[in-house]
Amino acid sequence: MKTIIYYSMAFFLLAHTNYASEIKAPPASHEQNTSLTILITQAEQGDPKAQVALALRYGKGEGVPKDYQRAVELLHKAVDQGYADAQCILGGCYHQGKLLPRDYHRAFDLTMKAALQGHGKAQYNLAAYYFNGDGTSKDHIQAFEWASKAARQDNAAAQYLLGRLYDSDIDNTQNLERAFEWYMKAALKGNSDAQNSIGYRYHTGKGVSVNPEKAFEWYMKAAQQGHSMGQYNVGACYERGIGVQQDAVKAREWFIKAAQQGEDASQYMMGVYCYYGKGGEPMDLGKAMEWWQKSAEAGNTDARDAMESVLTGKPAKVKPGSLIEGK
């Protein structure tokens, strides 16, 4: 099943592992300097909210040089006071292993502390940890309980996860109509995973009546946010004329967007388009094999079969694009 994405708040923006990396910040106005001075004073006086706010500034280089080590130190100070925001963020750092050495158990413990204080993002993260078995044993009952708590706080990612749980047949909880309801709540908040899932349901009729036009509409919403499976599905709709007029040129445009993000189904289809010279793509066997190789390395069996056919001197065995959800 698809891995659930976790929150670590603003620290998802920090992709570097050098904690003490310092970059000169742009000049600040007098008012900004005054605000920063007050924030630093409050943090030094032990205000955990100020400590977290200042940590995020150091993390992003807002008014101060980037300094990840200082950011982590401030978060630890706030954590020591039991501040839920800091527990959630630091837990996310331990889980991601980007600002701190990866430690799933430490991530789980910190996240549990924040979740028990009613912190919505932490409740979602905790549900995801239980769902995937990160730092704890897999437990879909606990995942359901914590996702429900976060979903009631309008957390879109938790609402999507609830849809996943209702969609599964684990512990006899399957309810396709309820799954659709939760996916829709998340999709309406802009969650691209949920938007792609809504599209898939309108296409397949899982929990809702089949509606190809709405399927295409929701796939497009996900695709426009850069969701690779949504982009592939838009391409597949154009390829097969599902909910939209068939158009190989537009199909290629979306397939290549997703393929460049590593989406193996799109890499396979780009191989097909290169093999046949379709959608404005020049016929190029070498390029087709390159795309199929990438797709096959990601585990795509259709790409592997196509390559094997060509390598044995036979015409490539190809299949049309099939819509996918991402589980």
From TrEMBL:
Q: Which stretch is the leader sequence?
A: 1-20
What Gene3D superfamilies does the database record attribute to this sequence?
Answer: Tetratricopeptide repeat domain
Any single Pfam family the record assigns to this protein: Sel1
Provide the organism lineage as a comma list. Answer: Bacteria, Pseudomonadati, Verrucomicrobiota, Verrucomicrobiia, Verrucomicrobiales
**Keywords per UniProt:** Signal
The protein's matches in InterPro entries, at most eight in alphabetical order, are given as: Sel1-like (IPR006597), Sel1_AlgK (IPR050767), TPR-like_helical_dom_sf (IPR011990)
Protein name as catalogued: Sel1 repeat
Q: Which organism is it from?
A: Akkermansia glycaniphila
Q: Is this entry keyworded Iron-sulfur? A: no
For the keyword Ubl conjugation, the answer is no
